[in-house]
Amino acid sequence: MLNASLSLFKTDQENLAVWNGTLYSYVSTTVTTEGVELELNGELAEGWQFSSGYAYSVSRNDDNERILMRAPLHSLKTFTTYRLPGAFNKLTVGGGFNWESRTHDGAQTEQSSYALFNLWGRYEISENLSASININKLFDKEYYLSIAGNSVAYGAPVMS
């Protein structure tokens, strides 16, 4: 069974602090953020689980100009797991990815769209004990965790 949900949203904020390329300043007009979120999850076949979510969000000022460009317009997250059948039924494997569209601070720093891939595995040793392994950022993609003016924070490497 596959479940789906759709959400539409709109938020109005006043006196929002926004990076203008040199410092944070308050936007004296109303900032409107609108978007949509779509989520699918469930069992596609016996032992095969799937989850995926997409979000679109844009913030604009009273002049209909886009602001808050440090937040991606689009993001997509997908993950799936499969419990092997028969003699291998104690093993479950999975994988997925997170993708975000291009972001920037409006002046100096730009982050191209990027995807991070992950793998996962679990072995059921007994009814009460299992062992699992997670491999995050499979291809060790370098990306900005956040963009804040003159500084950026990089996402964690695979091994630090």
UniProtKB/TrEMBL annotation:
Q: Which residues form the TonB-dependent receptor-like beta-barrel domain?
A: 2-136
Q: Which SUPFAM superfamilies match?
A: Porins (SSF56935)
GO cellular component: a single term: cell outer membrane
> In its UniProt entry, what is this protein called?
TonB-dependent receptor-like beta-barrel domain-containing protein
Q: Which GO terms describe its molecular function?
A: siderophore uptake transmembrane transporter activity
Q: Per the similarity annotation, which family is this? A: Belongs to the TonB-dependent receptor family.
* PANTHER family noted in UniProt: FERRICHROME IRON RECEPTOR-RELATED (PTHR32552), HYDROXAMATE SIDEROPHORE RECEPTOR FHUE (PTHR32552:SF74)
InterPro entries, from UniProt?
Beta-barrel_TonB (IPR000531), Beta-barrel_TonB_sf (IPR036942), TonB-dep_rcpt-like (IPR039426)
Keyword flag tRNA processing: no
Q: Where in the cell is it found?
A: Cell outer membrane
